[in-house]
Each structure stands twice: as C-alpha cells, then as structure tokens.
Amino acid sequence: MQDSRFFLLGILPLTFGIACSSEAEGPRATVPPFGASGAGAAPQSPGPTPAAGLGGATSSSSNGGSSTSAGAAGRAPESGTPTTPELTTPGPATMPGAEEPGMNDPPTTEPPAPTGGVFGLGGPSRCSGGSLSVCESFESAPLGSTPPAGWTTAGYGNRTLTVVDDDSARGERSFRIDVAGNQAAVVGMLVRGNLGPLGARHFGRSFMKIAAPAPTGFVHFDAFEARGNFGGQLNMVRWASTGTDVGTSQSNWSWIYNVQSTDHGEFGSEGPRSAHARDGDWMCLEWFMEEAAQEARFWYDGAEVEYLHIDTERSEIPVFDSFNVGFQKFQTTAAAWRVWIDEIAFDDERIGCEG
Ligand SMILES: [Ca+2]
After folding, report:
1. Which fold has domain 4-103+120-347?
2. Which of 110, 148, 150, 255 is most deeply packed, by most CB within 10 A?
3. 39 CB-side CA count, 13 A
C-alpha cells in the first residue's frame, strides 16, 4: 500500500527530478524525505529532524569501465575532495565496457539479536561452488581500492571504497565503505553491469554490517539500487532504510522500497515500517525483482518482510542495466559511517542466507 505521503510528490516531482538526476558536477543537493519539514535543505544543512519517510537522491553509477583493463574508468577517487559524479544517462548505453560478469514468514518486527554463526555467517566463502550466476566473496580481490574483477565503483563524496580483511561475513575479506562525517549526499557503490537475463528478473543476496554506534539523526540510505530505463527515464529501484537513529526498533526507522526516477520524482512503499536495519552485526539482505510481473520482495535475516512484497503497489521496475551494492546516504550526519558488505550474489533462484 502506498503511503499517502507519496501524493505530495505531485507537488514536487519536477524539483526532485531535476535535483536528483542532474548531471551537474559535484555532490548533489540533499534531497529531503517526503513530508520533511526541512525540504529544500542544502547540503551540510540538514534542517529540522523530519518525519519518517522516503528520501534520498539519485546516485551516480559508473558508466562501465573494466576494473581490470579500463583502469580508473568509472571509478571515483577514494577520498578527499568531492568527486565527479558519473553520468546518469539511462539505458544500456550507460554501461559500455563493463565486464561480464521459500518462505512466507510473518513480518519481521524484531530481527534476531546479534549472533555469530547464524544466517550463514562464518566459515569460508560459499561462492566457490559456482552454482550462482554472480557471487562475490572478495576473497580473491587484492586488499585496497581496486574493485574485484567484474565490478566497478561509483559515486561521489568524501568516502573510501576498499577491499579489507578487518571483518567479513565469510572468508577473510569484505568490501568496506567509509564515509566521513558532516557530509550530506555521499554515494559509495560497487556496480555490476552486463546483467543478461538477470536484468529482467533476479534474486539478490548481500550481507551488510554497519559499524556501531551508527550516526544518529535522520537519514535515508540505500543498500541496493538497480538501474534501468523505464518509459524512457532512468529508474533507480532501491532497498533503503529511512528514519531516525539507526539501530533502534522504532517505526521511525525501517527498511522501505524506494524508487527514484529522473522524470517523475520519487516514490515507494514503507508499510508499517516494522523491519529495522541494525548496527553492530551482520545483516542478511535478500530480495527479488521482476520486470514482467512488476513484483519485488525483500527478506531480512531469512524472514520475508511482508510489507515489502510489492505486487499491487506502484513499482515501476524496469529491465535493469546495472546493480549497485554498497552504501549511499543523502542527509548530513555529524558522525562518520563505516559499512561492510560481503558475499554479494545474484541468481535466477532464491539464494538464501545459507547460500
Ligand atoms: Ca568474504
């Protein structure tokens, strides 16, 4: 069910569309959440704490470029001054050169307490079996800023994207996104293009960990963003978290379905907001998206979040050109963010947290 606040979009879509899809240089303006009293706040000026709801801005994905042969093509500098956002032109042409690459539980109201060895955590990578269309363990990627083969990095802002060995869901290595504090929109994503049949229908799975304590204050962040041409416009379809105070179990902080379009604004579904992203331990995120059925589903630590089963709701799922996995957020937080991702997988069947 769409939130009534979405109808506010009718007032501001042009503004958001321009602000969010601009190909202008430099970090983009903060895009406030719908219904936020701080609408229009400029970067570095978060304004009053807004109500829960959608928010966010477009990210910038790489225009391709091989991580192994195209050098820095499509990659942003790792830190320091604001970087140049990549083009957001929709369509397959935006990804040239990129390398090839069951459950029905009740809504998750209280994710399980942090535990080790559950949800498929620990032990060696399970990517090596070769049964999944895409599975990235980071185990064979060199430590440092070079993305794994088959991926590029994208985004902007003062952040670093690094293969590390200080934490992992499995194996020894993972991919870490560090975002410096006191910034508004920051995008740090791994990008996968040349999706083949997965572009029209896919299951995804990632493990994600946010260092505790997470920054406080209102924020919209995305853990996953799939991009494609929908009716001539670029749609960015996301699994996001919005609200105040990461790690709480209040309805103001939860996972949502979120779509940002270059021409008709931003919308999504957030239901009762009963599934809450945590900080301090690994989360297992799974999802499904299909263009033909206009259906999306989301599982959290193995349990389906019913309110994020998008079937009759507005969905606008295109055939995707790229998948972006990582961390991007759109409001100023004083504190820095540290996020790890690991065992990123895509397939035509559900992967599961144990997969
Ligand atoms: Ca790993």
Report:
1. Jelly Rolls (2.60.120)
2. 255
3. 15
Cα 320 to ligand 1 centroid, rounded to whole Å: 26
Please tell me whether residue 78 adopts helix, strand or coil conformation.
Answer: coil
Residue 89 Cα to ligand 1 midpoint, Å, equals 32
Residue partners of 230: CB distance under 8 A and separation at least 6: 261, 316, 317, 318
| Ligand 1 midpoint to CA 76 (Å) | 23
Segments in the chain forming alpha helices (H): 13-21
**Under 8 Å CB-to-CB from 4, ≥6 apart: which residues?**
none
Amino acid at 77: P
| Cβ within 8 Å of residue 353, ≥6 positions away | 119, 120, 205, 284, 286, 301, 302
What are the pLDDT digits (tens) for 158-186? 999 999 999 999 999 999 999 999 999 99
Q: What is the mean pLDDT of residues 1-6?
A: 37
Cα–Cα dist 19/140, whole Å:
39
Distance 123 CA to ligand 1 centre (A): 9
For the chain, give the percent of residues with pLDDT over 70.
Answer: 67
- Residue 128 Cα to ligand 1 midpoint, Å, equals 11
Nearest Cα residue to 296 out of 256, 265, 248, 323: 256
Domains of the chain, residue spans: 4-103+120-347
What spacing in Å lies between the alpha carbon of 345 and ligand 1's midpoint? 12
C-alpha span between 174 and 105 (Å, rounded):
29
Spell out the residues 6+ positions from residue 277 whose beta carbon is closer than 8 angstroms to its own. Answer: 210, 223, 241, 246, 247, 253, 254, 255, 283
What's the distance, Cα to Cα, between the start and end of the chain in Å?
A: 31
CA-derived radius of gyration, the chain: 18
pTM: 0.72
Nearest to 355 by CA among 303, 302, 309: 302
